[in-house]
Each structure stands twice: as structure tokens, then as C-alpha cells.
Amino acid sequence: MFVSASTECFPELSLEETVNKLADLEYSSIEIAVHEHQNQLKPSEVASNVAAAVAKCGAKRRLNLISYSFDIRATGEDYFDQFNACCQLAKATRIVTTSVPSAPLGTPFNEEVERFKRLVKIAETHGVRVGMRSEYGCLSEDPDTVGVICDHVKGLALSFDPSQYVYRHNQPRDTERLMKYVHQIYLRDSTKDQMQVRVGQGVIEYGKLVNQLNKVGYHRSLCVHILPHDDQDHIGELRKMRLLLESILI
Q1: What's the distance, Cα to Cα, between the start and end of the chain in Å?
Q2: Would the CA dihedral through 10, 212, 174, 112 be positive or negative?
Q3: Which residues contact 160 (CB under 8 A, 6 or more apart)?
Q4: Which terminus of the chain is less hemmed in, N or C, by CB atoms within 10 Å?
Q5: What pTM was computed for the model?
């Protein structure tokens, strides 16, 4: 395992500025967030000019690109067309690991299964693997639902965010049974009342998580996902999390 960081940690900056910030913080690997609602690179931009997106993401950088997160806001067939373009980007930049959000709570289960089946089919034609991202307020907030969807959709992985199973739950949910599906991890510290708190003030057990991942042979990224917060030293928290995770992995 190794430590990386999401470019989503600096949502207001350009991709180049974010890369430089994370390099200055001594991260060596990054996930690029291709999100329609942010400034760095949008799925609609990728779909309109895949070659330009490849040049933007594949140019010589100070950090290793190890994964993508896709958040597509288009609907209907445009959604799948943009996802296909994003998979072309991943293939061209030699990236296999990708993440997409799950649908909001209330979405019919069968509808979500069919959506992921189609996403997996598209991704497989490009040699890319899709991970359903853990998210509070979405179908993936429930471990049982995650297991059932992953079992129904052959080839679907889980982009696991332990905070989503702590926040607004009286007791952290039992997620060890989900480890076998995991192909990406997102980390911050959290409590049941706050999604993000200062590192060390929450209840996320990083050492326990690493042990669980070791048991299933996980050898990929631990991706830091700490957003700017008014009462937190953002730069300090990003540095502290990197040092903590690296110390656990030694």
C-alpha cells in the first residue's frame, strides 16, 4: 500500500496549481477528480475533446497519476457518452482504477444495478475498472446494500470511504465484510456528528483498516481526501495525515 491524495482536496484551484500544492506537501501520487461541479477538469470537457484531456492529465508532472474519480451530472444517454469518454481518458493515460458516485437514497435498487452493469460493460471495453464510491445519503451508505449490488454486478468494485459509515450513525457500521470489494480508499478523520474533524480527533481506526486490507491482499492507494474547512489548518491537516499513514505502512 502507498499514500496518495485526491486533487479534490483543493476544489477551487486549477489542476496544475493543485498538483504543485500536493507536491510541496511531499505527496508522490494523486487521484485526479474529473467532476462537473469543480474547476480542474469536467466530464463534459473530456467528452468534447478527449485528446486535450489526455494531454492535460498525461503531461509530465511532479506526481504519479494513479486513479480517477468521475462525477458526471449529465442525464440520459449523455451520461453514458461522457462516461465512455472518461474511460477513453483513463485508458490513454494507463489508469485502471476509477470511482463514480452511487445514486441517492430512494433510487430503485434494480435501476441502480442496471446502471452499474452498463458502466462496467463500457469500462471493460477500455480495460478500466469501476468502483462505486461510498457516500452518505446514497445507496452506498448501507454496507448490506453495497454487498448486494457488488454481488449482482460482476466486475464492480468499491471505492471505500470509512467516514461514510461513521457519520450520523450512533455506532460505526460493520464494514469488514466489504474489504473484498475494495479497489480504492478515501481517508479523513470523522465522528458521528462531523464528516471531517482534525486528524486524531475522530474515530477512524487507520491501523485496523490497514490490517483488514492486508488480509484481502489490497496493495493499492490510501487516498487522502481532506477538504478546506473554516476552523482547520488545511495544509497542516494534509501534511499530518500523510505522515500518519506513512508511519502505519512502515
Answers
A1: 10
A2: positive
A3: 134, 175, 178, 179, 181, 182, 184, 185, 186
A4: C
A5: 0.94
